[in-house]
Design goal:
Blueprint (H helix, E strand, L loop, with lengths): L2 H15 L3 H32 L3 H24 L9 H21 L6 H25 L2 H24 L7
Length: 173
């Protein structure tokens, strides 16, 4: 039996024991992809501003580099137990912390001097921060979600253990 078949078998067995697991897994995956979508949207909108300002290299580089760190957070939350969901508060706090100076600049410069794209970015960042806080609450508060997250983590840990057993021993030089 190859690793993929083992993974499917373990997941099927877990689904028999925990009927809500497929729905939870799909929802968790969707929420984390939604998080990545927000960060991609923010980076693309910022990239447009950099492009307009005459910095095309920054505009192009900010998108993939701006998705690297949120991607690490998403993978940590995906792979880890429910307590790992609190990691999402770090990018949420970062977004919320960035909002305050942006709002202050908007108020100081006046609403007429900034481009409409700046307001769109401000709104998307605010919505993304609230979204991340909501994801954390959804993953961490309901006892059923905590339990299902722990089950998913156990499956992952078991698969990692089995893959290490199947791996060939390291070569000596």
């Amino acid at each position: 039996m190859d690793m993929r078949q083992e993974m499917e078998l373990l997941f099927r067995q877990a689904c028999e024991e925990h009927p809500g697991l497929p729905r939870f897994r799909a929802a968790k995956k969707g929420l984390l992809w939604g998080m990545m979508g927000f960060f991609a949207l923010i980076r693309v909108l910022e990239g447009l501003l950099y492009w307009e300002a005459g910095h095309p290299v920054l505009a192009v580089l900010r998108v993939p580099l701006g998705l690297l760190i949120p991607g690490i957070f998403a993978l940590s939350v995906w792979r880890g137990g429910w307590k790992f969901s609190f990691l999402l508060l770090l990018p949420a706090g970062s977004l919320a912390g960035d909002l305050l100076p942006e709002i202050r600049v908007t108020l100081l410069l006046g609403y007429n001097t900034l481009r409409p794209m700046a307001y769109v970015i401000l709104a998307v960042e605010a919505i993304a921060a609230l979204y991340l806080a909501g994801v954390v609450l959804w993953l961490a508060l309901p006892p059923e979600n905590r339990e299902l997250s722990a089950v998913m983590n156990q499956i992952t840990e078991e698969l990692i253990r089995r893959s290490k057993e199947q791996a060939p021993p390291p070569r000596t030089i």
